């Protein structure tokens, strides 16, 4: 339990205004605010770790087609965080417990007891794993693309928070060849040198069609698509008969607002291709199976949680901008 006196104030990040184009530092304001005071049935939590993700860019626009409310200009941002309970109603969680909740982007948070989820470090031994996008990656591999032994698999956005985990899950499911797409040659080297990918295609290194033809001459059996746009279009062009394609993200449209794929339905029909959207909120029944497989992999070393760690809430806005610009590998976590 934290015995240090509580401060009178803490820092939180507010959205100044809705972005119209690339995010800049002017879209954020670091505010020193009074320490929040919990009411009945609420806990005060000292945040220790928070994540930033690409979907936050869409939430800033306020009108995205998402199963969560957008951010309001002038208000504090929010997002997944892990923290230590400082004060709480009697029962569980208790002061000193580590919990996960949705009130990140601030150093201290007041959260209702029903919004706190105690961290089970016996199931997922690494706190970073609780903020990873491993569940989305697992769903894409297992329920979306239904990766099978012997498959050749493409993961778009292979160096990101979802992609860096999806490639590992595909390998555990028996894929013979795992290919990742990414933005630079340097990140391609990370994919093949650190993240276990067999090959990489680089969107800035020439037509993706030609690159995929080179690394997967017999075509693709399964695709976990995080990006959409041109990368999904190239994947469809190289999908084999009966290929399974999981849609777990739309990074291209989140960044530009205009990216389209132009899917040719005759191609899907004639090749018997399955194109399946896999939203996490529709598969919550899979959480126990995912946690068991994820935790086992973390404990035996067959899985890791690739992440970029940034120190200090004041650096969170730049960390989000770096993520959107493709400068990060794995999940992006802020240590508070």
Count of strand segments: 15
Structural class: alpha/beta
Strand content: 25-35%
How is the biggest beta sheet arranged?
Answer: 7 strands, mixed
Mean pLDDT: 93
Q: Uncertain segments of ≥5 residues (pLDDT<50)?
A: none
From the alpha-carbon coordinates, what is the Rg to the nearest angstrom? 21 Å
Instruction: For the record, give the distance between the C-alpha atoms at the N and C termini, rounded to a whole number.
Output: 17 Å
Oligomer: single chain
Q: Helical stretch count?
A: 11
- Which outline best applies? globular
Percent helix among the residues? 25-40%
Q: Which sequence of SSEs, written as H and E, runs from N to C?
A: EEEHEEEEHHEHEHEHEHEHHEHEHE
Descriptive terms for the model:
seven-stranded mixed β-sheet; six-stranded parallel β-sheet; alpha/beta; single chain; 336 residues
């Amino acid at each position: 339990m934290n015995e240090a006196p509580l401060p009178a104030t803490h820092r939180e990040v507010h959205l100044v205004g809705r972005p119209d184009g690339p995010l800049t530092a002017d879209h954020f304001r670091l505010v020193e605010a009074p320490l929040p005071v919990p009411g009945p049935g609420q806990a005060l939590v000292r945040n220790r770790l928070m994540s930033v993700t690409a979907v936050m860019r869409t939430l800033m626009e306020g009108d995205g087609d998402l199963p969560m409310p957008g951010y309001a200009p002038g208000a504090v941002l929010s997002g997944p965080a892990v923290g230590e309970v400082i004060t709480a109603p009697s029962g569980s969680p208790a002061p000193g417990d580590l919990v996960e909740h949705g009130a990140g982007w601030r150093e201290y948070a007041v959260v209702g007891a029903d919004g706190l989820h105690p961290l089970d470090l016996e199931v997922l031994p690494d706190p970073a794993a609780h903020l990873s996008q491993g569940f989305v990656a697992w769903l894409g591999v297992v329920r979306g693309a239904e990766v099978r032994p012997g498959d050749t698999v493409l993961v778009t956005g292979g160096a990101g928070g979802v992609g860096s985990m999806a490639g590992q899950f595909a390998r555990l499911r028996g894929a013979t060849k795992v290919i990742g797409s990414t933005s630079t040659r340097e990140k391609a080297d990370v994919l093949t040198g650190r993240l276990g990918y067999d090959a990489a295609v680089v969107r800035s290194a020439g037509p993706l069609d030609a690159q995929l033809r080179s690394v997967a001459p017999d075509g693709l059996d399964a695709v976990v698509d995080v990006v959409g746009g041109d990368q999904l279009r190239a994947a469809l062009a190289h999908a084999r008969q009966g290929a399974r394609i999981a849609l777990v993200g739309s990074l291209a449209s989140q960044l530009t607002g205009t990216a389209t794929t132009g899917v040719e339905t005759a191609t899907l029909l004639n090749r018997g291709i399955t194109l399946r959207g896999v939203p996490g909120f529709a598969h919550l029944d899979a959480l126990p199976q995912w946690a068991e497989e994820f935790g086992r992999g973390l404990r035996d070393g067959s899985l890791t949680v690739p992440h970029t760690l940034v120190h200090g809430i004041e650096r969170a806005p730049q960390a989000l901008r770096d993520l959107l610009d493709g400068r990060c590998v794995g999940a992006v976590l802020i240590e508070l």
